[in-house]
User: What shape does this take?
Amino acid sequence: MLRWIISPETRDLRDAPEFTAAVSALRSGQLVAIPTETVYGLGADATNPQACAGIYAAKGRPSFNPLIAHVPSLEEAEKHGRFDARARRLAEAFWPGPLTLVVPRRAESPVCDLATAGLDTIALRVPAARIMRDLSCAAGCPIAAPSANRSGRISATTADDVIEDLGQHIAVVIDTGPTPVGVESTIVALTDDVPRLLRPGGLSRGDIEAILGEPLKRTGADDEAPAAPGMLSSHYAPNARLRLDAQNVRPGEALLAFGLPLPPGAERAVAVESLSETGNLVEAAARLFTALRKLDASGASAICVMPVPCEGLGEAINDRLARASAPRP
Ligand code: TXA
Ligand code: MG
Assistant: This one.
């Protein structure tokens, strides 16, 4: 495994020999860990079924769970999916950025059936992170990339997280440091009359509704057929049990804090991580997965979590916390 550390001063990534190595790894069907602004992705050539099978195998992911195809531009995205006026408005407003659009798939798209899990829709995203867009251009393919963690586990927001979970399966790990947004992209489906929020994420519902001019319908796991198959009960699971909306810290628990003051019993917590001392939801989203990983490593049998308001990015944070605390299969 090659680890390519990119510093913020690096000007043209495409000049580096590691870039060439990553491109040939993608072209030959190997896996490359690629940072985006949300979380690290486990990337492969989305048109190569063997490469995509490698993603499912490495993650231990149920193969019915489709992958997001990352492309460099809306123009490229339109080769794979059909964008109506609403989809185009959202793409123009928020791409590149933490938004994934699920649209009807074009029959002529070369993205393989394994990547879309055989659905007649496709999830597309133009990430803000330049490296993903540059790699897609240079390799000449959309890049299928789920979050670079083992299936059902906490998403990876640093290259160390990726290597710990999946290092032995990956040809090149690209390391740009901690991801700035910290939770996955927001997923919106524009496949029928009503625009649907399939997964809250790094772009808030309010920002999207302002551009759409209509409310998003939340499609949850309680619907008969979950529209984002990945969004099933237990996910993002640490080893420790999670206790949400905690008003106090019980003996033996670690504390995931949000804001101040800390709740009674905090002084005897096994470990404490704060999402944001000032109650800032953007900072909290960026720290969420790293904080969960650290508290899990403390060996506490349970993690109690202070309440986080459900506005703005709080919707995505609460969604991930609810899944992390869900009963395990
Ligand atoms: O921020 C992100 O979105 C990250 C980075 C790497 O881009 N990726 C990510 O991928 O979170 P993943 O595979 O962990 O989550 C993708 C979600 C899954 O829940 C999957 O079921 C859903 O997208 N999805 C993919 N294609 C879909 C489709 N055609 N219809 C509905 N849901 C779809
Ligand atoms: Mg994931």
Remarks:
- The mean pLDDT is 92.
- Residues 36, 38-39, 41, 65-68, 100, 102, 116, 119, 121-123, 125, 127, 145-147, 184-185, 187, 198, 227-231 surround threonylcarbamoyladenylate (ligand 1) (CB under 6 Å).
